[in-house]
Every structure is written in C-alpha cells, then in structure tokens.
C-alpha cells in the first residue's frame, strides 16, 4: 500500500476499511480500559486509532503480540527478556511496550513524545548496547508493517 505522506495513519486505516480488509477492532469498553492503562500519561492518539481498528487482530500481524489479549503483559515480558539477556538498559514508567514478536523482540514508544512518537526496538538477535530507534513516527512504523 503506497501512502506517500508520513503520519497518515487515519487515511491508511480508512483505506483498509474501504477494501474490507479483515480487522478485529477493540470494543468501546476495551478502548476505555486502554485509555486508562497509564494513570499518569496519555497514550498517543495514533496508537489509540490503530487499536480502535486492529486491537483484537489483523492478518498482517500474525505472530506478533499486540492485541488487547496481551497488552497488559507485554511490558512484563519485555522486562523479563532484558533481564534474561543481561541487557544494560532498563524500561522506565515513561516507556510503553505496545508490540512483541515471538518473544525475542519488542517495540515501544515514550509516553511524553506526543501523539505520533518515535518507535524503539529491542531485539535479542542483534548485538545492541542501547534500544534502537526504528521509526521517527508511530504512524510510519505501523503502516510499514503492512507494506
């Protein structure tokens, strides 16, 4: 899917919807729970938009945990992964782990970087000494997963 302008997550989601792409959205109750997930910070609007459409599944994300079923456990799993690998960096309360793939890599964003924050990665198969920035914006990252 070619979406030329960065940050056009809503346009991307609408395009998939018009094409009747199979997506399992969050219910209103689930979105409300998600919005209250972080007691001190607000989740980025682009993340909430994404979850409103794909929060319970999307075919192009098979094998990746990000849905409401797992969202409460992702950070715990990420912390365990870092500990198992004796990684020197730690996750803070400001970092929100929103996706994990096959238990060896995860993605997060900082809660204080706006509605379209950069995305960072930890991957145990890479020789990392710090978390790796993989996208300047959350919307760009999410759209790239489909492409």
Task: Describe the structure concisely for a colleague.
With about 150 residues, the protein is an alpha+beta fold. It contains 5 helices and 5 strands, in the order H-H-H-E-H-E-E-E-E-H.
Helical content (DSSP H or I, runs of 4+): 25-40%
Going by helix content, strand content and strand pairing, the class is: alpha+beta
Describe the strand arrangement of the main beta sheet, using strand numbers: 1-2-3-4-5
* Low-confidence sequence ranges: 1-6
- Gap between N and C termini, in Å? 6 Å
The strand count comes to 5
- Average pLDDT, all residues: 85
Give the radius of gyration: 15 Å
Biggest sheet record: 5 strands, antiparallel
Shape: globular
The proportion of strand residues reads 15-25%
N-to-C SSE string, H for helix and E for strand: HHHEHEEEEH
Task: Give me the number of helical elements.
Answer: 5
């Amino acid at each position: 899917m070619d979406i030329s302008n960065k940050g056009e997550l809503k346009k991307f989601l609408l395009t998939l919807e018009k094409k009747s792409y199979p997506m399992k959205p969050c219910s209103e109750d689930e979105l409300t729970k998600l919005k209250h997930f972080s007691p001190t910070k607000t989740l980025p609007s682009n993340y909430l938009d994404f979850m409103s459409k794909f929060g319970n599944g999307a075919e192009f994300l098979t094998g990746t945990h990000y849905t409401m079923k797992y969202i409460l456990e992702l950070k715990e799993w990420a912390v365990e992964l870092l500990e198992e690998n004796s990684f020197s960096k730690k996750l803070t309360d400001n970092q929100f782990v929103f996706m994990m793939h096959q238990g060896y890599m995860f993605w997060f964003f900082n809660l204080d970087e706006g509605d379209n924050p950069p995305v960072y990665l930890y991957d145990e198969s890479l020789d990392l000494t710090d978390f790796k920035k993989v996208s300047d914006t959350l919307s760009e990252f999410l759209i790239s997963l489909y492409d």
